[in-house]
Amino acid sequence: MNTIWVPDLAGDEGPKYLSLARALREAIRTATLPQGTQLPTVRDLAYRLAVTPGTVSRAYQIATQEGLLEATVGRGTFVAARKPRLGPTQSLFTDRDAGVDEGRVDLRSPQLPDVGQVAIFGDILKKISLNIGAEWLDYTHQSGERPLRCAVVGWLSGRALGPVSEDDVMLTHGGQSGIGLVLDCCLRGDRPVVLIEDLAYPGFRYAARAARAEVVSIELDDEGIRPDALEAACKRYGAQVLCLTPSAQNPTTARMSQERQAQIVSIARRYDLQIIEDECYFFSGAPDPALRALAPERVWYAGSLSKSVSAALRFGYVICPTGMGPTGRLAAQHAFFALSKPLAEFAVELFNSGAAAEVRSLVEAEFSDRLQMVVNRLGAFDLAWQRGIPFAWLRLPQGWRAYTFTRMAEEQGVLLRAADQYAMSNGRAPNAVRLAIAGGIPRQQLDAGLAAMGYMLPRPPNDMAV
After folding, report:
1. Cβ–Cβ < 8 Å for 410, 105
2. DSSP string covering 402-449, please?
């Protein structure tokens, strides 16, 4: 049956798409929306609620992933039959919906510019195709990955990581894959505990929950996690793993000083914490040594090509603690045997030809120019940014709430991530938003989106012209 269900979201704080997702759960739980009920179309419900179509689309997506709704092409969206939903229930990232987001300035996640990669990739694929033999028919083996592990060591030669050899390298299908594999190596017991930053890359908590771990957040200050809060959590929870982004805290852009790094390492040694250092935003001019250089016996350094060359390749790596490389590779073997032959061959050629380094340099230059556009437009506000990092952190002026700002920005064609998307469900989120650098859209379009934000910021809702 059809319905004209229109929930009341007026009293809810936080992003409207989450409020709508909660309303859907409650309506289905109480049978206000019985099994088989057809929901309004995205645009119809958006009109009735006075929200954007993107808000409704994301709420429907969450409810579908939780098994509450089912969508059928050509028929619509319906309340699903009641049955337990197995596996993850929340998307790790928001898919770009061409039908809803087309023409908008999407600043939710960094988008790499094409600085010549497409042509380079085509040339590499042609070269590889000339040498395909019978070995492409068999399972791949890690024994054949040594040239690629050596290439990764060369790729990172400009980064101070402490002692590193190819034997320390674990190859992965991107940074998120690496985080999950490290947790496989480090967690033990029936209820392990993983510590993350109070505002953190969501992939940390999703990977920890997939490993059946309890996730505990640690308070931040202007340099990252606070040593006193970390020590208190270690005493209380007996944690096994600490997840960090010390060189460019995601989402706040904070950089941890070497003195603070030494304090964190001292606590980690005292409580035998393993540390995942996520540096997917590594850039060639990083000024300070990595955390792994201070504690090579316990830091797992995770990175990838996703923010510097291509996210589509799904290629990453982990520099394991000294002596732990075989353990890491064994975890990878249990997950996927070894990298696929096409990916491994492609990556070796990409590194050894110098193309990866060339592309990284050009991408960094383009990101730098676009970051300067952000600073030029929004630098008069409370904007935190760091040279070489393709995102910025904007604390909103008095009178704004983050969810209101993101909703009104979306109405102006600008898509942002509010601070609450980086916080635990029971955590605290400031009135702030993260702006990722959109390298895939024309500069004029990016500048127009930034200008719209600059107009909005000094005009909170009560002051907006009508």
Report:
1. no
2. HHHHHHHHHHTTEE-EEGGGGB-TTS---SEEEEE-BTTS-HHHHHHH
CATH number of 16-91: 1.10.10.10
Give pLDDT tens digits along the chain (466 positions).
556 789 988 777 677 888 898 899 989 988 899 999 999 998 899 889 988 888 898 889 888 877 889 887 778 899 988 765 556 656 666 655 554 456 799 999 999 999 999 999 999 999 999 999 999 999 999 999 999 999 999 999 999 999 999 999 999 999 999 999 999 999 999 889 999 999 999 999 999 999 999 999 999 999 999 999 999 999 999 999 999 999 999 999 999 999 999 999 999 999 999 999 999 988 777 778 999 999 999 999 999 999 999 999 999 999 999 999 999 999 999 999 999 999 999 999 999 999 999 999 999 999 999 999 999 999 999 999 999 999 999 999 999 999 899 999 999 999 999 998 999 877 788 999 999 999 999 999 999 999 999 999 999 987 555 4
Residue 439 CB contacts under 8 Å (≥ 6 apart), including other chains: 110, 111, 112, 113, 363, 366, 367, 370, 390
Assigned fold of 120-353: Aspartate Aminotransferase; domain 2 (3.40.640)
Domain at 357-463, CATH class: alpha beta
Any idea where the domains of the chain sit in the sequence? 16-91, 120-353, 357-463
Q: What is the C-alpha to C-alpha distance for residues 193 and 212, in angstroms, rounded to an integer?
A: 9
What is the reported pTM? 0.83
Total residue length of the chain: 466
CA distance linking residue 337 with residue 401, whole number of Å:
47
